[in-house]
C-alpha cells in the first residue's frame, strides 16, 4: 500500500496522462483538418498510447488500495501554424512529462516506496523513447523546411504502427 502523498501525486500524474491523450487527440484533429493525414494518424496512435499510460497508472493506484481522484482535464491549445510547430509543442510537452515523472521517482525514492519506484521506471524508459522519436521527426521537418519534402515526411508518419514511434 502506498501512502497518501504518493497516492495524491499519482492521481495528479494520472490527470497529466489524460491531458496528454487529450492534447494528442487535438493535434491529430489539427493535422487532419490541415491535410496532414500522416500526422493525424501518428498523433492518433500517440493519443491511444497516452490513454494506455493513464490506465496503467489508474490500475496501479487501485492495486495499491488507494482511491482514484478524477481531476478536471485542461483544454489544450491546438492552434498551430505548421506541422513542425505541432511536433515542437509535442516535444516540449514530453519534456514536461519527463520532468513530472522524474519528480515522482524522487518522491518514491525519498519515501522508500520501492514498489512505486519500480513501477515508475517503465514510464521513465518510455519517456526516453518518446523524446527521441519526436526529436527525430523535428529534425526531419527542419531538414526539408517548407518544401515538398514535408509531404514525404507526412507519408512516413502514416506508416507508424501501434506500439511504435517513428517509421524509417
UniProtKB/TrEMBL annotation:
Protein name, entry field: Ferritin
Entry-linked SUPFAM superfamilies: Ferritin-like
Gene3D superfamilies the record matches: 1.20.1260.10
Reactions performed catalytically: 4 Fe(2+) + O2 + 6 H2O = 4 iron(III) oxide-hydroxide + 12 H(+)
CDD domains the UniProt entry points to: Nonheme_Ferritin
Family, as annotated: Belongs to the ferritin family. Prokaryotic subfamily.
Lineage of the organism: Bacteria, Pseudomonadati, Campylobacterota, Epsilonproteobacteria, Campylobacterales
Cellular component GO terms held in the UniProt record: cytosol
Organism of derivation: Candidatus Sulfurimonas marisnigri
Record carries keyword Nucleus: no
Ranges for domain Ferritin-like diiron: 1-145
Cell location: Cytoplasm
Amino acid at each position: 500500500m502506498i501512502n497518501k502523498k504518493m497516492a495524491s501525486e499519482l492521481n495528479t500524474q494520472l490527470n497529466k496522462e489524460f491531458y496528454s491523450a487529450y492534447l494528442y487527440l487535438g493535434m491529430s484533429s489539427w493535422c487532419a483538418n490541415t491535410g496532414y493525414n500522416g500526422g493525424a494518424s501518428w498523433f492518433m496512435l500517440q493519443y491511444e498510447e497516452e490513454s494506455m499510460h493513464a490506465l496503467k497508472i489508474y490500475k496501479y493506484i487501485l492495486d495499491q488500495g488507494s482511491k482514484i481522484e478524477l481531476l478536471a482535464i485542461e483544454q489544450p491549445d491546438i492552434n498551430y501554424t505548421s506541422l513542425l510547430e505541432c511536433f515542437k509543442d509535442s516535444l516540449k510537452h514530453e519534456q514536461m512529462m519527463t520532468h513530472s515523472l522524474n519528480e515522482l521517482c524522487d518522491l518514491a525514492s525519498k519515501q522508500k516506496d520501492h514498489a512505486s519506484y519500480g513501477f515508475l521506471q517503465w514510464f521513465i524508459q518510455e519517456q526516453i523513447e518518446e523524446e527521441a522519436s519526436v526529436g527525430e521527426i523535428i529534425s526531419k521537418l527542419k531538414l526539408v523546411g517548407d518544401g515538398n519534402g514535408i509531404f514525404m515526411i507526412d507519408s512516413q508518419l502514416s506508416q507508424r504502427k501501434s506500439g511504435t514511434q517513428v517509421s524509417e
